[in-house]
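Hi Y.,

Following your request, here is the sequence exactly as I used it, all 146 residues.
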Amino acid sequence: MKEFPAEMYQLPFFKQEGFVRKKCPKCGEYFWTQNAAQETCGESTSDECGYYTFINNPATPKKFSLSEMREAFLGFFEKNQHTRIKPYPVVARWRSDIYLTHASIIDFQPYVTEGIAPPPANPLVISQPSIRLRIFRTLDPHSADT
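Below is the corresponding structure, written out as tokens. Let me know if you'd prefer a different format.
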């Protein structure tokens, strides 16, 4: 995979906001951070670049099941004048460029984000199931790496 030259990433915004671009020594991927002391990208992957700090260390004294937490999340926003909408399918069949819904914004692209159609509510809240797969680089079958 061809990399972009570093100068293409030297945008005024990153400098103004104090971001630095680093290469993770564990997985080899580049990442942006405002923490100059940060060494790894922090992604929770098999490369162990990071980990989820909330596992076995909940942020609340009450334990929640998945259904209870989802309902607490949706209920909070409903109490604050957001309309609850049903989740979209995880197979993004309304899109020709992706197969899976990997974030709730996918539900509204391109129709709502490009002004083709109005949002189903505004403001809204959604608990969107999604599927994220780690991206594997395609190996050249003719290279020495295969």
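Helices lie at 12-16, 66-79.

Thanks again,
Q.
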